[in-house]
């Protein structure tokens, strides 16, 4: 009698194939519901990262302007934040960024437009598609001045 009890308890200790299939089906349903939301948040994070990087570049440009008396020209570009332009005198106190100028989160360089008639500069990322305009992750991200 003791032997028969041991066999039964040992045999019923595992999971049946049906139980495993039910668990796999539930996990698949959960992944189908949660996966798109997680991926959507990841995409939004890239746009937010671009906005933060652009704000940092904008602040570095302000420091450049305080030292030199003007913003870099379009030709000098953002490179003027890390290397002294030839047209700048002794006022340049850079580099104004640690390291190099970052690319946008999609691996493309930021576009820079020097001062316009109102004195404002533009820093622009064209988003995931690299084309002007767009929506969502393809939307342009720029400084707000």
- Shape category: elongated
What oligomeric state do these chains adopt? single chain
- Percentage of residues in helical conformation: 40-55%
- Residue share in β-strands: 5-15%
* Secondary structure tally, helices: 2
How do the SSEs run, as a string of H and E? Answer: HHEEE
Rg estimate, integer Å: 28 Å
Q: What's the arrangement of strands in the largest beta sheet? A: 1-2-3
Regions with little confidence, pLDDT below 50 for 5+ residues: none
Please state the structural category: mainly alpha
* Intertermini distance: 86 Å
For the biggest sheet, the summary is: 3 strands, antiparallel
Task: Compute the number of strand runs.
Answer: 3
Average pLDDT taken over every residue: 83
Short recap of the structure:
This protein is 43% helix and 6% strand.
What does this structure look like?
This protein has 145 residues and is mainly alpha-helical. The chain contains 2 helices and 3 strands. The chain has helices at residues 2-11, 17-68, and strands spanning 111-113, 122-125, 141-142. It has a 3-stranded antiparallel sheet with strand order 1-2-3, covered by helices on one side. A hairpin with an 8-residue loop joins β1 and β2 (122-125). It is elongated and about 85 Å long.
List the helices and strands and how they pair.
Layout (H helix, E strand, L loop, with lengths): L1 H10 L5 H52 L42 E3 L8 E4 L15 E2 L3
